[in-house]
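Following the same procedure, backbone shapes were mapped to integers, yielding the entry below.
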Amino acid sequence: MAKRMILMLAVVITLLAGLGFVKYRQIQAAVAQNGNFQPPPEPVTTIVAQRENWPSTLDIIGTAEAIQGVTVSADLPGTVARINFESGKAVHTGDVLVELDTRQERAQLAAAEAQRDLAGINFGRTQELVKQGVMARTEYDNMSAQQKATEAQVGEIRATIERKTIRAPFSGILGIRQINLGQYLAAGQAIVPLQAINPIYVNFGVPQQTSAQLLGGRTVRVTSDDLPGAGFTGRVTAVDSVINEATRNIQVQATLSNPQGKLRPGMFVQVELGVGANRQVITLPASAINYAPYGDSVFVVGELKDDPKGKTYLGVRQQFVKVGGSRGDQIAIVSGLNPGDEVVSSGVFKLRNGAAVKVNNKVQPPNNPKPKPEDS
């Protein structure tokens, strides 16, 4: 009985050992097969790096501002008797905009003029009597002062009437009327905005490290997405005397010709400011740059070796670069890349150093230094 049990146990152990050996061989074969497995090459597009001559410019956001801008208001209280303008129209210096009711002041003026005339007659008589020695010099002085006081009163009432005729302080474009006929206006109440927009200012901020290159007279080019195809050229006319502590930017003001009034105060514009001589850079589409906190990089395509077998394949190596500004769809590469290098222009997000790639350049990413608004 014992021999039988020992025999059965030996048979079971032999079977288990055989099954384990077979499984071990299967695992070894699977590991060997997976070790030879290569992921399929990633499809990418590429571009050959070329050196270009780039102007040294800054692309900045600016705001248009009127050369002169006020809200015309009432100088004195009164009732609106006449409105002589239309909203949105151009006016010239001295044009009458609003006339307030001056009937009371004109009546006061007539009375003051009568008193002035009477004081003048009395003063003339006093002069004759003084010459004849009939009247004292003191009476003459009183009549002289009375005549001057009546003349001053007439002048004051005329000034009041003139101040109730509200005129344009300068030439410009009116805004929307804020009053109505017959309305009572308090002193200082707004009537209509007035803006002088030709020429026009454009204000923008530049980094403090650029302030040394900002000289009066530098040319700026201004565009706006709301005015496709329109460009405006002007010059830097003022640089602020202080740097903003919060942004470390310095405020710059340029003056532009605006004959058709297309640029309006408060409009958001793009400013291109020249800050030096042209420079040689390598340009790539923005989609070719792999941005990362530890440094920006690109993937350069080339023949790589598979170390275990020594075979070559088409792959990529990661190359760190220094970025030096942008222009449209393009990014300037200052260092880290050589002309003639074939660089991945799209698909960089799925690559790693040494990855195999397959180039397909049938569809290329945007690479225009001056894209149109509809393409952006």
Summary: The chain has a mean pLDDT of 84. The CA atoms of residues 158 and 344 lie 81 Å apart.
